[in-house]
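Lab meeting prep.
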Amino acid sequence: MRDNFDRMPYSIIDKQVTGIGVTTLELSSPRNSIVVVPTKSLANNKAFNFPNSRYIGSPIPGLQPRFNRRSIENYLRDSSIPHKKFIVVADSLPRLLDIIGEDRYDDFFLMIDETDMMQADSMFRPALEKLIDYYFLFNYKKRAGVSATIKDFSHPDLQTEPRITIRFIEPPRLHIDAIIETNNPNATLKQQIEILRNEFPDQKNVVAYNSITLIQGLVNWLPENLRTACAILCSENSKADAGEYYDELLPEDKLPKSINCITCAYFAGVDFNDDPI
């Protein structure tokens, strides 16, 4: 994206595929920005790569939380950082906007990352539903919503919002080594994990599985030497369900264990930047 733009255009952006640098473009742009993300893991992922940005949300290991009013006001006054960049978990946006002040909304560009994910989750998290109301407090040229999987919006005002679709002359292709049919997913996963650990002991594995209960069943089915190598990466709301296996991304987006089971909190927009063990 940075080869063609110096900042994000306004409107709803249907980027079609992930990993094309949309969020990076806005965080690198020559203007003040507020980038709203649906999960702490996604905020973590972005904040590490932009040291002059300020993360607003609940604490993340390895990141200084930027909660209090004084630190935010000091950041806003810091002339050594010409373009202020806030990376905000949706639940914390109201507090940030209160500190910035409504009269300064025009000083910032508001970008909502993974817009459709927020709409889908809004029935469970009221702060996400309220987020759309804040979106429309910004001038239409000072706001954007971005996703690779945009669906029809239920919010009537979003239905009339201008939309830009990014199309590729040569669309990126997803490489899939194998598709395995099974009526017993955990047994098949157990078998595949054991094969991969034996053949590639220096590599880390990621299991995308959107059920804490089924992940727990899978982990408990593994032999002891593999159970201790497991981590469950999920939302904070599911931390108690994950129990002793709960973990989070390490600094610089590193995976914490050899076998990393992730739920939907890590499905959208999160990049893993890892090396062999």
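Slide two material, second protein:
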Amino acid sequence: MAALTPTLVPALTPALRCPAGSRPTRRRAGSARIAPGCDRQYPAVSGCPRHATGCARISPDCARLSTACDPLCPGCDLQRPGCAPGCARVVTGCGRIAPGCAQDAPGVPVTRPAVPGCARAARESGSGPGGRHNGRRRDPMRIIVIGAGLAGLTSAWELRKLGHEVTVLEARNRVGGRTWSQRLGNGQITERGGEYVFPTEFAIRRLSAEVGVPILSHNVRYARRTVDGRHVSSADLEATTTRITETLRRMLGDGHTRVSVEEAHREALGPDYRQNPVYRRMVTSLASDPSLVSAASAFLYDPDAGQPFIDDGGRFIGGNQSLSIELARRLGPAVRLEHPVMALDQSDAGVEVTLADGSPLHGDAAVVAVPLPILRELRLGFELTEDQRVALDHRIMGTAAKLGVPLSAVDDDIALQSSHLTWWSWRSLSADGEHRIPALSCFAGSRATLDALRTADGPETWVAQLRAMRPELVIDGDVLLTDWSADEWTRGSYSAASLDWTPADLDAFDVPAGRVAFAGEHTGLEQTLNGAVVSGLRAVGALSRLTEATGGAV
């Protein structure tokens, strides 16, 4: 992670200090996380704080350290007995911690050296867009967000909350991007796009809680699917993953370079590695040729490293698109559908977007949140930073398809993986918490598998393979096929790190390219719904760098 410039936390005004006799807010030195309750309300950036013992620290735009911060902050030792609500509010201008709230460390400045591998940390000192800088408030900006998927809508929502005027331009006639929910003929909702919200994906869970979109468990063995009549135990899964990871570390230590996911599995598991259920699960989810994907990115830089393993995932009630729909509803007329963007340029005066009909739109800054293939075709009248250009060059786009299947009779296996192709199928838990829904979802990843299933010709080949794999199923109505490689505004599923990927790529999008920030799963290593949300928050943090660089209003 890139080191961040040391920042001072300003003093509290007397009216906002803790009441007499109350204890200060405390965080242990070296703590690896900012309380999720705080970064729900303020954009997250790379890097992690290492705190001076006894010094009070919160994100100023979080405004107060509430009870929500406490239980979700492992190892931080947050203590606030006797503190009235609002006692830890931060006001910019002074650059020191108020003695009233840091009694054993008065006047201790706070620095933020990066901690490798650490979780994202909220920026302090009011440095976000629309915050304060050098004691004066910045003017609101007009910010154009290109793309109304989860990444773009997250950015727009956070920027709106910070007081900016946002305009969201979406090429499609709907919001949601690669989240797309639709009802089958029997009334069941199927996900044509992104499916899973995992238990430790806190950014999207905070966002959905904030706007009131509830989550229901799939109750599906996502990582331990049935292959050839059996599924691995949690202990076997952990042992196999550890073996692959340690083998990879040894290979890299011996001087191997550009080690692929395929090569790491072969070296660790032996000649029959392709029949291993752990391999089959991983390469299915990659949606790319595993011989072209960096093993280091997949095994050594997992964003969930250190989190407990929970073999389940969730989905939003009403469909996963419902989160995007709710964000768009709250943003109102700021979201403009069927407004494809062809070009983007910038100058010292601001940014200019050119729509497909040739009409221009002007703003102070922009967030580009479109899929990788669309970004590569967008006419940019400016240069990306060198780090950004290299990071994008190190991404490859995967291919995937989904199949929604209405059922009138089911079998008893909830998660079944093909033993010879990279596709699987599952049935999710019903909202009653007792039964499974009468529908099946199928996911196929990689160009080779889509070609074998002949998805370009329709669903028939895939349905025939499904019937052979699960003969007890009775299909009740039309199936719904979605081939993302044929989608005009995506042209693939999600990206993967190529063999040229390096850890330096992780920080490339923490900063803007001039007045333009970038969001989307391809800007990070989480190719998930949560990864889209995280990237949207990161883009807001990048624009905070823009306002810092200009020293005031843009």
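Talking points for slide two:
The two ends are 27 Å apart (CA to CA).
The CA atoms of residues 63 and 469 lie 55 Å apart.
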